[in-house]
Design a protein that fits this description.
alpha/beta; 4-stranded antiparallel sheet; about 25% strand; globular
Amino acid sequence: MTRDDTGERRGPVSLLTIEDVWKDYHGTSVLRGIDLSVEAHEVVCLIGASGSGKSTLLRCVNLLETVDDGAIYLDGAEITDVRVDPDDVRRRMGIVFQAFNLFPHMTVLDNITLAPRKVHGTGRARAEEEARDLLARFGLADKAGAYPDRLSGGQQQRVAIIRALATRPRLMLLDEVTSALDPALVTEVLGIIRELKEGGMTMILTTHEMGFCREIADTVCFLDGGVLLERGTPEQIFTDPREPRTRQFLKSVLDARRL
């Protein structure tokens, strides 16, 4: 680790680096010494049982939660430093949750252009032009004037992803974005994530869709009890996991889908 001329701590040169991160809730450690590096254009899938720490890790990266120990670096600069403005960090990231979180009183176009206009200072005309381009790219050109309650769940989630993309983030964080959808709608949301990968977007996503994870991930990380227990390529994790807990988890997923 080094310091630049301003005294700011500089970390490794990966797009995102997580070093020995711990997070406690009411005396219970939900993240325990997490180390992870994410390179530009890499897709990292976090898998594990509910409560394993996957969502908490994403929230720590986005500074929605403060870490209790360790550090997180974005583009080599520590973002967990208390002197850092969290809003400035979040301008460089997009995060999408399983709940769509669209503003119900605003049209699709207004939902998408709100952050570019209010946070990034983009003019309305340009923000709307770019939003319409994104809507057309992802098959929603005719929904610009619609309100969220007139959209299907899959369409709402696609709009939520487009809203995050409208700020041109360096990194996308996707937290179980298909878990609230009917099975018939999952495919359309996975399609937009697949297209983002093809376009080179750097992403960290949590998912229970193991087949999709195997297809899209460059790196798969298995979390168990707040520990990043195993990481590897999809081929290695899904065909020859080293850790017994990883094998047990994947077997439980397979068995559940047989029921």
